[in-house]
Amino acid sequence: MIAINTYLQSVEHLQAEAEVRELKRTIQALRNGLELAQHDKENAVQAATVAATQEVGQLNVTIVALRDALENAFMERENAVQLALAGSAAEIAQLKETIAKLRDMLELAQIEQDNTVRQVRQAANVEVAQLQAAIQALREQLEHCRP
């Protein structure tokens, strides 16, 4: 019975050693898998970091380009406004000059018209006086002609 017990213990011991070896292989395989996963994770993080850095760089370039385009558009608009103001100022000055000339012409026309009206009145007054004198002379002649 001791031999059977010893044999059983040897078998159990061999089985335990086989199990330990199997567990060691499993642990090693898990370690290898974990290292591979860790390595893949690090590669993925590095790839994501590189991609994010490139995207940030592209976004910065886009921002600069958009800022430049906006500044150019602002300057073009500012120049257009300045040109429009300059054109308007010249047109306003020309219109003011035209208004002043027309006002002067109107004043001269009114003065000429007033002078013409005064002359016509004077001529009319002279003619009325002449006609009244003629009427008076004709009345006097008529009175002398009556018996």
Short summary:
The protein has 1 helix and no strands.
Description:
By secondary structure, the protein is an all-alpha fold. The protein has 1 helix and no strands. It has one helix at 2-145. The chain is rod-shaped. The N and C termini lie far apart (206 Å).
Name the features.
147 residues; mainly alpha; 1 helix; 98% helix
Secondary structure blueprint with pairings:
Elements: H1 2-145
- Strands, count: 0
- Element-level helix/strand string: H
- Largest beta-sheet characterization: none
Please give the alpha-carbon distance between the first and last residues: 206 Å
Number of helices: 1
Structural class, by secondary structure, is mainly alpha
Q: Rg from C-alpha positions?
A: 61 Å
Give the fraction of residues assigned to helices.
Answer: over 70%
Low-confidence stretches: none
Strand-residue fraction?
A: under 5%
Shape type: rod-shaped
Mean of residue pLDDT? 91
